[in-house]
Amino acid sequence: MHIAGMIAIGIGVLFLFLGSFGIVRLPDVYNRLQAGTKCTTFGCLFAVLGVGIVEPAWFWKALLVSLFVLLTNPISNHALGRAAKKSGVPLWDGSVVDKSRDFPSYANTEKL
Amino acid sequence: MIVSIFLLVIGAAIVLCLIRLIKGPTATDRAVALDTVTTVTTALLVILALVFKRYIYLDVALVYAVLMFIGSVAIARFLEKGI
Amino acid sequence: MEESLEQILELSLTLLMLGGAVCACVFKDLLNAVIAAAFVSLMAAILFYFLQAPDVAMAEASIGAALTTAIFVIAIKKTKRVEEE
Amino acid sequence: MVERIFKKSTTRVRIFLYLFILLTLVWMALTSTLHWQELTAGVLISFILSLFLSKSYVGLGLPTPTVKTLSFLLIYIASLFKEIIKANIDVAYRVVHPKMPIRPGIVVVKTELKQDLAKLMLANSITLTPGTFTLDIAGDKLLIHWINVSTQDEEKATQAIALKFEKHLKRVFS
To answer: What is the ipTM of this complex?
Structure first.
């Protein structure tokens, strides 16, 4: 039980580190958001559930914490991404396509 | 013993986020770094509760997970209508 | 946990907090300064946690990082965003 | 007339019961004890809350909870977890790879879901799955940032990104 929980915490911590690494390494806001959302949500989920496995009496509260993280983290990141697009942060030069001109509410924001 | 390695890795993650917070060309980059550091901190608090062996410390992580989202949404709302 | 590791972590957290505080003073764009201040209060909350005061950490987390950020953002919206020389 | 009122009231009672059970379970997870004082307080508070909340639940136009809907919801959550694990390995590979094999771009995707909550769940699951990130929703279209664009066509992009969740969500919200 103890070893399984420690392995879960280890996986979670590894993904948290990779998410932060992606924040530093990737080229523009949108790609950074990708790394920042997925890796940190997953890593936090695994770390918290791992703590719940190591101490079985804590499991239910740990589950509640992970549930809140799973619900709130994508929403706040989505709000940040939308704000970035609306305030006209440019895409990276290597981007392939930008279809946001077809979208009604972005017709008059600056191009690329 | 192995927990101390986890704590050091999380500390390194916070340092990386601070680098992006200093460097970031736009305000949105900095907000993304702050949001990431919040999630990392929630995990850190839960692991520290395991280290200190106190059940009551989990409550702090719960409050963190619920309330931090308000700050990010406030910043995002401002950026949408601002410059 | 060993005594020395705890001291190392506390020291590094203090240094991170100092870095964030310097950023909050240096930035000319006030929104960036607010974000750096939120980072500082995040680190302060972890530091309180290390000093075995979870209630203070909870208050610091809720007031310092969530409420203060929202109030500062509203204040910036009513005034100007960029600081002048 | 009488029959209709009866039918409406039974769905209302069912919603009330489900909310009551859900809130009591959350309370029990928060306190983590089976002491009788805590349980009494929890049952009382969740009774009062579900009395008020069941009214607004009907007003929001959410699906009535039945055993079938809940089992479809569980299947959806299981498939979501599988996708999350795939997504993380994918993103970790892209970040660690020395050349960063990314071809980012913004594409438009269509959805057939009607309810607001269903669209929210679809957007959240798209955010958590491999290489895609929801930027905005308007009407039946979603604006999506894709880290590795393989097609620019709207139909094909819909098939690649949204369809695998939509078929689960349609069954939940039918």
So the answer is: 0.84
The Cα–Cα gap between D106 and D144 comes to: 6
Whether D108 and D138 have beta carbons less than 8 Å apart is answered as no
How close is the nearest chain B Cα to the Cα of C4, in Å? Answer: 11
Closest-CA distance, A2 to chain B, in angstroms, reads: 12
Please report which helix (H) or strand (E) contains residue D170, including its range: helix D163-173
What's the CA gap between B12 and D117, in Å, rounded?
A: 38
B46/B63 Cα distance (integer angstroms)? 12
> Where do the domains of chain D lie?
2-60, 67-173
Measured distance CA(D153)–CA(D146) in Å, rounded: 13
Contact A28, A91 (CB under 8 A): yes
**β-bridge mates for residue D143, sequence order:** D108, D136
In chain A, the DSSP E strands lie at none
Chain-centroid distance, C-alpha B19? 14
A32-83 pLDDT per residue, tens: 888 888 888 888 888 988 988 888 888 888 888 888 888 888 888 888 888 8
Q: Are D169 and D113 in contact (CB under 8 A)?
A: yes
Number of domains in chain A: 1
CB contact under 8 A, D145 and A77: no
CB pairs under 8 A between B and C: 100
Cα distance between residue C75 and residue C69, in whole Å: 10
Distance CA D137, CA D108 (A): 10
Domains: count for chain B: 1
> Which residues, other chains included, contact D99 with Cβ-Cβ below 8 Å and sequence gap of 6+?
none
Contact D48, D19 (CB under 8 A): no
For residue A56, list chain B residues with Cβ-Cβ distance below 8 A. Answer: none
Using only C-alpha atoms, chain C has a radius of gyration, in whole angstroms, of 15
Q: Return the residue matching tokens 């580190």.
A: A17
Q: pLDDT tens, D25-67? A: 888 888 877 888 888 998 999 989 888 887 777 666 566 667 7
A49 falls within a domain: yes
Tokens representing residue A4 in the block: 């399984």
Instruction: List the strands of the sheet with D141-146, edge to edge.
Output: D105-110, D141-146, D132-138
Nearest to D142 by CA among B28, A81, B73: A81
Residues of B with CB below 8 A from C35's CB?
A: 21, 27, 30-31, 33-34, 75
Mean pLDDT value across residues D111-132: 80
Q: CB contact, 8 Å: B20 with chain C?
A: no
Structure letter (DSSP) for residue D130: T
Provide the domain limits for residue B56.
2-81
Residue contact B48–C73, C-beta within 8 A: no
